[in-house]
Design a protein that fits this description.
Layout lengths: L7 H15 L3 H18 L10 H5 L20 H11 L12 E3 L8 E2 L2 E7 L2 E5 L10
Antiparallel strand pairs: 1-4, 2-3, 3-4
Length: 140
């Protein structure tokens, strides 16, 4: 059962984002990007207050995704990534992105905090960061 409201176009957009942000990190990396995106829509907190849809989340400015500035984001969604996006929309979670609202790829190790948000872990080249339960209870 979906944890956020979407259309088929929203699902394809999330699939394109997942591929554009993390294709080099495999299926699990793409799932984690989708997890963060869905959390931003669910959250309605902090930097993501009033973000209520996939398009709002993807194109949020400031705070959106760098991939939207690249041509490969605009390629047609493939069925394999659409299936992954549906898993995230249906509430599947992947640690360390389970409750994360942010991720980034540092040059070195993951910092313990990033803009006062706690590091929840690393997957390959990306570090994930979570809000407190008090700041954003709806992602827990």
């Amino acid at each position: 059962m979906a944890v956020i409201k979407t259309t088929s176009e929203d699902t394809r957009m999330l699939a394109r984002l997942m591929r554009a942000e993390a294709e080099g990190e495999g299926e699990l990396g793409m799932l984690m990007v989708g997890n963060v995106g869905v959390n931003r829509v669910r959250g309605n907190c902090l930097d993501f207050r009033n973000i209520r849809s996939i398009p709002q989340m993807v194109f949020q400015s400031p705070g959106g995704f760098e991939a939207t500035q690249k041509s490969y984001f605009y390629q047609k969604a493939r069925e394999s990534e659409i299936r992954l996006a549906k898993r995230m929309i249906n509430g599947e979670r992947q640690h360390p992105a389970s409750n994360a609202l942010w991720f980034f790829r540092p040059a070195g190790g993951c910092p313990a905090t990033w803009y006062d948000q706690t590091n929840s872990g690393r997957f390959k080249k990306h570090c994930f960061f979570i809000p407190t339960r008090t700041d954003c209870p709806s992602v827990y």
